Amino acid sequence: MDTTLSNNHIKTIRSLSSKKFRDSLGLFVVEGEKMVAEALASDFQVVEVWKRDEIGYDVMARISQLSSPSPVMAVVKAKPLSAPAETGGLCLALDGIRDPGNFGTIIRLADWFGVDVIYASPDCVELYNPKTVQATMGAIFRKKVIYCDIPALCRQFRKAGLKVYGTFLDGEDIYAQPLSKEGLIVMGSESRGISPEVAKEVDGKLLIPSFSGGAPTAESLNVAVATAVTLSEFRRR
Amino acid sequence: MDTTLSNNHIKTIRSLSSKKFRDSLGLFVVEGEKMVAEALASDFQVVEVWKRDEIGYDVMARISQLSSPSPVMAVVKAKPLSAPAETGGLCLALDGIRDPGNFGTIIRLADWFGVDVIYASPDCVELYNPKTVQATMGAIFRKKVIYCDIPALCRQFRKAGLKVYGTFLDGEDIYAQPLSKEGLIVMGSESRGISPEVAKEVDGKLLIPSFSGGAPTAESLNVAVATAVTLSEFRRR
């Protein structure tokens, strides 16, 4: 295995920290032993693997996107993120999730709770953003993520006789509502919640109630945390 | 109100990005309109408030710890973080939580789910770390956080006849276990889980089961997400 990188090669890998170059090259980067092992075991095409012990600490520090360069990095071929929506099973729709940490954490927990497909609105953060990728802890290699128009997706689920759920501050207590085994669960953005265009397509408005006993409390939950509570409630029944 | 800051004053505020100076000055910083409003409404002592419109964008950019300087910042007096442990109610114990985002998110959701006190092991990240403070979304001004020895705390709860719970990969299905209204819930670190010294004090070992249907899945949940699922399950009953 070749263990030297030309300056041009280093420059190319470094360029993958920017969306522009990820898009034009169709590649993204994963770091860490666990992540690289999961990439290799998946059906993603791993283009190259670089080990710190072989290329040296200084070169790894130049190509790594982490503050302390990891022992191993892989350059992976991106998969297309648009595909016809599939209707069925229990799916998530993310409406305007901008924070890569939240987006990646949601993919990780969707994997844990057996969600079939994760749909994302076009204004969500990019799946192959390095912070998203790392926050998935490998779930990115197992879960299907499709960017699409969320209001149209909601209509497609309802047309198929499936329910569309969402969490709202004026929804009905999630712990006391009937929840179906299949359907679409919409989660809204960190700052604005579910957008009005999507909200009007939701027919199951849910609320995660606060238990502060009437004392002043946080106005909302972090979106990854709210997704976890919601999926837990759908799955435990 | 004085709207000019001397260079020395700017230097002092900037120094609060470092734990060393937060400790020696006993001060910390909060940013954003919501956070500053919550600080002012709380029983924390707000030492000074600086508005971007008054001091100018450039000065705010120098004292802000955010990538885009917020419209308002407050310097707040820290409260002592050691106190005798109180036994009773439903409490959280955090064992080695290192990530400030996770720590702050857990305080925010403890607020939502009406947790009485949050105990933290001495090796947890510092409460007044700016990333922790911002992730609490204001809950830091409402919740009591006490740093203490967690094994001793567990023994104190058990001596008082209260149960000590924790999540483990070999625990019992949380959805099928009896959960008491009072007690202590231990959450372990991001990388190592609950430490062995603490684990032997836990008498209610819980598991959040995966619903991946036997397919390979994430090995674990993010600790903030696991805390959310656990608290939701304790509170809904």
Characterization of the model:
The structure is a homodimer of 237-residue chains. Chain A has 237 residues and is of the alpha/beta class. The first copy, chain A, has 2 domains: 71 residues, 60s Ribosomal Protein L30, Chain: A (2-Layer Sandwich); 147 residues, SPOUT methyltransferase, trefoil knot domain (Alpha/beta knot, 3-Layer(aba) Sandwich). The first copy, chain A, is 35% helix and 22% strand. Chain A has 10 helices and 9 strands. The longest helix of chain A has 14 residues. Chain A is elongated, with a radius of gyration of 20 Å. The N and C termini of chain A lie far apart (52 Å). Chains A and B meet through helix 6 and helix 10 of A and helix 6 and helix 10 of B.
Rg calculated over all Cα atoms of chain A: 20 Å
CATH class of the largest domain in chain A: Alpha Beta
Question: Would you count the extended β strands of chain A for me?
Answer: 9
For the largest beta-sheet of chain A, the strand count, sense and barrel status come to: 6 strands, parallel
Low-confidence residue ranges of chain A: none
Order of helices and strands of chain A: HHEHEHHEEHEHEHEEHEH
Oligomer: homodimer
Judging from the principal axes of the Cα atoms, what is the shape of chain A?
Answer: elongated
Describe the strand arrangement of the main beta sheet of chain A, using strand numbers.
6-5-4-8-7-9
Write the layout of secondary structure elements.
Two copies of one chain form a homodimer.
Chain A: H1 7-15, H2 19-25, E1 27-31, H3 33-41, E2 46-51, H4 52-55, H5 57-63, E3 72-77, E4 90-95, H6 100-112, E5 117-120, H7 130-135, E6 144-147, H8 150-159, E7 164-173, E8 183-188, H9 196-199, E9 204-207, H10 223-236
Parallel strand pairs in A: 4-5, 4-8, 5-6, 7-8, 7-9
Antiparallel strand pairs in A: 1-3, 2-3
